Input
Amino acid sequence: MIKNILLIAILLFSITAEAQYGSRYGSQYNRRQSMQPRQPRAAQQSRVPEIDVEKAVGMVFYNTEKVSKKIGVKKSSDAFIKITSIFNLFNKELKQIKRINTFLFSEGKSKMEAAQKETIKSRDYTALQKANKEVTESFKPIIKVIEDKEKKLDLELKEILTGKQQKKWIKYRENLKKK
Output
């Protein structure tokens, strides 16, 4: 009986000692991982943010089913058919704007990417600021057209949607613009 108690005590002691050793010094995997040499901060490749020109001008294409679900319009209602046709027309108009201004978009994107590369090399942000100002000026007419299309969309939806649905639409649209 005493031998069994002594054996159990030694077994429990060794288990707790192993558990403490493992938690204090990390598992074997963590110890191996920490032995790998780490790169200095300067040697790491700095990531350049991706430029999304469509997002920059405020161009948002709406998924009609997702929008109707978010604002609470059921598929069986007459309003759903009207909303679907309105959003399809809006998306078609935006695609047309995108197609017409493809050259301007690609030119602006390449100008911004070149300025980013130059800024990373020289650590002087004036080139990036200058390029940003030029691109913003060239996009102003497109932004104006898109804003007019969105105002028209809002007016068309206001005629169909209830007050509660209108509030949900505005909230959903603003959240998409923030992204």
The mean pLDDT is 82. The radius of gyration is 30 Å.
